[in-house]
Design a protein that fits this description.
Radius of gyration of chain A: 20 Å
Number of strands of chain A: 11
Largest interface: A-B, 49 and 49 residues
Distance between the termini of chain A: 5 Å
Strand content of chain A: 15-25%
Oligomer: homodimer
Largest sheet of chain A: 11 strands, mixed
Structural class of chain A: alpha/beta
Number of helices of chain A: 11
Order of helices and strands of chain A: HEEHEHEHEEHEHEHHHEHEEH
């Protein structure tokens, strides 16, 4: 049973939470392997909004006290806290350790297993961050998202995953992949917890939001080319019906973007940029398969890339015009189904396009399949409307959870 | 007399160029003070497209061999090459030194003087980079631009300054100010040289472009609220007439964006982001005046910032729709006039808005006032059409220079 961090307000409650987390770590880390390295004796700070809070940090984010390996074997990162890490420490948080990630976000699985089923992937590339929160080892974990590396593992692991608006959280000290697509991501156990952390980093004070009932929601109907599991689609339909029963106006719309760009635009941008970001000269060479893929993009000129950038700008404005003023959030699956077997980190297609659009996205652990494996509900908001998206998400999260839709396996 | 780097092709010509550069350094650096530190005995490499090329690098960009002070007194940067520096070295370039900049881009002047008049500013924040190229110390200098820190000093110093499309050149290892606005900038003595360097960094091979005559150009007529010097406006009018005489169709249009956003949108974005990027926790505290300015933005919530981000996206698409297919470039002044006196790094108003729009911009040293002080002609292109903008710029540069419009003081 995970308790939301924000519920554990008193020093005693936080101490009890940490004890449960460290007990869980002793019991399950040998199987789950969420961490590259960790220190259960890490000194707890007792001041600040994140006092006595354990946090895991993805191993692409530089830290002064732990090595940084970018998902490779070697410690190659600078021994200096990334901006986000320095910020979390200043707020009183304690870094329990560095979480496993796939090398440079490339879908070669790391060693982490899914806390709901050790034969399945936790997703990637923020594998260990999602698993560490799902297993109850930490209250928060920091990940990143360039395609779907936060939303997808959150869905697979049955936790809340949040990708903020582009530019909202500093990437200083974080290994870049594609500068116009890279985002920090946050894993937690409720939207409210997510905003508590994000607002502490970005606002003058940590904000404890309450859920706010949306007026209108837009549900996206996806074309058959996108391989969404049947039961997943049925869950979203059922959830829409329930929300509609609460008096929320639900509009359903066919995906209003060309399917080819929905599937491939982000890849075109990502590979072109990554070829100029992570091929040598670089601190560390990428895995050979990735190097071979990127080498092709290293040789391509600006023309296609530039056109893709301009289409992306057009879609950004189209999305904002579609949602603006009308809808509190856009709803769609967070992945194509439950976590696949361990040899495959899964398909990022439900996130890629929105990552390129720079809009805030969140995955809520409110569905599961017949075997109790989690399926996330994804909500999208307008650029910069991160707080508003989270207020809507918190309301939906509480509502769908309370109606028995959320039984995401072993950790709840 | 500066010779364009691309003209000096043989080893002998490059050796002669370097000798002239080092002689100029001995003669004038005591007055100009372009460098924080430099090493005239820096080992020359003789392989690669940039073999035997001296380059200056702005002191916000990390280097393994020189200290990095971010315009402050202390060496606080990591002792590791930024991505762009590693890339330049791999291409055979030699770093002559680190160039002076204002602290965190804040317009507190550094010690560099304008090579055309030591009582005047070289502009900022890439002060030393612009001055080092103008004084003939180096063939290229790397700067940055978050508001107008490349285009304006290029205009004041009578050199070519280029701000590429957002995301084109890696900022890894460069001190961030505002993540959605930060760009690398390049100083050189011709558009062709600029593209030789940029393409060497971004493309499979260094490209030697030739000028290409544009079909249509859009000249922006600026509202009276923008304090452009009368002679500057007259120069642009005269240049337009000459280009029209060459058979280029010139369209003149009133600035098609709200003047308030043209002047202030970038500031709103910049200060909000900078408050989250350069206030503590940070390696180095900003200057007190900047810290006080940013503290106000640290306390403001997301609402206004988010709205500004969304307006910015709309303007990006508007600009692209306006220019797209119709015009080869947009013409306007690169600054409001010649370099002001040394106590003031000048007004970035001619660049701020376009920086936020992420489009490529270049300043060409083709005008000067009655006292021989340089005035730059700014050209803007479509996002990602950097090469095309430079081909147009090279043609205009050769044409206006050859027609006697370009006599930018002491260095030509």
């Amino acid at each position: 049973l995970i308790t939301d961090f924000c519920i554990a307000k008193t020093p005693a409650a936080r101490a009890a939470l940490i004890k449960r987390q460290l007990d869980a770590l002793v019991e399950r880390e040998a199987t789950i392997q969420a961490f590259v390295c960790y220190d259960p004796k890490a000194v707890l700070q007792h001041d600040g909004p994140l006092a006595s809070t354990l946090i895991g940090v993805k191993d692409v984010i530089a830290t002064a006290d732990y090595p940084t390996c970018y998902g490779m074997a070697e410690d190659v990162g600078p021994r200096e806290d990334a901006r986000c890490v320095a910020c979390l420490r200043q707020l009183g948080a304690t870094l329990l350790g560095k979480t496993v990630c796939t090398a440079f976000g490339y879908p070669l699985p790391g060693r982490t297993t899914n806390p709901h089923d050790a034969t399945r992937t936790p997703g990637g590339s923020s594998s260990g961050s999602a698993a560490a929160v799902a297993a109850g080892f930490v209250s928060f974990a920091i990940g990143t998202q360039t395609a779907g590396s936060t939303i997808r593992p959150a869905s697979y692991c049955g936790v809340v995953g949040f990708k903020p608006s582009y530019g909202l959280l500093s990437l200083e000290g974080v290994q870049p992949i594609a500068p116009t697509l890279d985002h920090l991501g946050i894993f937690a156990t409720s939207p409210r917890d997510v905003w508590y952390l994000v607002s502490a980093m970005v606002m003058p004070h940590a904000e404890l939001v309450t859920g706010r009932q949306p007026n209108r929601l837009l549900v996206l109907r996806l074309p058959p080319q996108l391989p969404v599991a049947d039961d997943y689609a049925a869950h979203i339909e059922e959830a829409s019906a329930r929300l509609s029963g609460e008096g929320i106006k639900i509009t359903t719309l066919d995906l209003p973007f060309p399917i080819d760009d929905f599937r491939h635009l982000q890849k075109e941008l990502c590979y072109w940029e990554a070829a100029r970001t992570i091929l040598p000269p670089c601190r560390v060479r990428p895995v050979p398969a990735l190097e071979a893929l990127l080498a092709r993009y290293r040789d391509s000129d600006l023309t296609n890339y530039a056109a893709a950038r301009r289409r992306c700008q057009t879609y950004q404005v189209q999305f904002d015009t579609l949602v603006g003023g009308e809808y509190d959030a856009v709803l769609l699956p967070a992945a194509t189904g439950v976590a696949p077997m361990i040899s495959d980190t899964g398909d990022a297609v439900m996130s890629r396009f929105w990552t390129a659009l720079h809009v805030p996205a969140i995955s809520l652990p409110v569905f599961c399949n017949d075997h109790g494996l989690p399926l996330g509900l994804q909500l999208l908001g307008r650029l910069g409307m991160d707080r508003s998206l989270i207020e809507t998400s918190q309301w939906i999260f509480e509502r769908l959870r309370n109606q028995g839709l959320s039984v995401s396996g072993t950790t709840r």
